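Prompt: Have a read of the protein record below and flag anything odd:
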Amino acid sequence: MLEKQLTGHRVDRSICAWFWEHAISQGESFKLLPVIASPTHYLFQIVREGITFLACTQVEMPPLMGIEFLCRVADVLSDYLGGLNEDLIKDNFVIVYELLDEMIDNGFPLTTEPNILREMIAPPNIVSKVLSVVTGNSSNVSNTLPGATASCVPWRTTDLRHANNEVYVDLVEEMDAIISRDGILVKCEIFGEVQVNSRLSGLPDLTLSFANPSILNDVRFHPCVRFRPWESHQILSFVPPDGQFKLMSYRVKQLKNTPIYVKPQLSSDAGTCRISVLVGIRNDPGKTIDSVTVQFQLPSCVASADLASNHGTVNILTDKTCSWSIGRIPKDKAPSMTGTLVLETGLERLHVFPTFQVGFKIMGVALSGLQIDKLDLKNLPNRPHKGFRALTRAGEYEVREHLHHPGKSGIDLHHAWQEWGDSVILLTKKVEACTSSPRGVLDSKLIKLSIMT
């Protein structure tokens, strides 16, 4: 347990025990709840890479403020540490402390912009770790305050100079889909991000427009985006931070097509189950479909499995997870996996069947259909270089099987389990008042940090 109290009033640590008792007893359903009411507190939670970020308040407050702050903390830690897991947090707990000191001042969210935090606290590297061992000074905090903290654009460092002015825009999309064994599309939508890598001198002013912005839903912007041009003309007008950042996120609903199909067949009788899975291209996107994988969890009643494929490799892990790595789908044949599952003694037929999780990656195309029209740049000393890319990959892409017994109708069941991580970061706030601003300022009187392992 690593704990940090920022004000005199202490919140009892028993709230952690209450949370984990309910998380373990209720399982996946509890994990999906963003807002939880305990007997003494309101809890807000997000989960990143198996780590639960939990915010706690004793009075009512706008839940989106707490959730947004937790998302910002998770993004900053992931950016600094190069990922999120228990070992990284343990190895860099000093930096975690320092970041929270700058992000929160006496319970008030203060500096949450990654680019400014990087100037205040140096990210961990091998050199800094060696110097901390030699000198005994483990602090990475700068002695000078970044000039941008008092600027009207606090996300951008003042007086930036680059030898080559360049800006790159990436459309990164994830397709979430639920498909039946028969290929019927139950649900399909895309969650996308506009990611920008900006290396521009001075104080540039950028305008990005799309050819078809009407397809976008649930848009969410970086603080640098001016909302009025988007509201009136659906144009993104902004002064960018320096380096990489997420300009906006969006969702595109009710898509009608998916790039690949996965057709599983299961039939069981006399203590064995025959499985066959066929994979192929349903709608050719015009680009190569790469990194195709099919993964499913063998039911606990399966004693042994013998699986083989005509393309790619099939691996069965110790936790009964079957992973079929296909790579690129060949043009001359459809990849297929077949095999036999042997059930435990006493079972004649398989009554619980797996859900197939599909992965893929397509470079050079955004399957939502979103297209960038143009990018205009102002206030630059010379002509910059501009670049655009697109990437679509599978998100929660599931194919749900129907189990068939000879002479019996199909049964459609779905069962998916995910394990909770061993780590939790607890941020506790006693909120006295809240004020609204474009970035959402949280007025709180108590912050508590605990890392439980």
Notes: The first helix runs from residue 14 to 26. Confidence is low (pLDDT under 50) at residues 403-453. The radius of gyration is 25 Å.
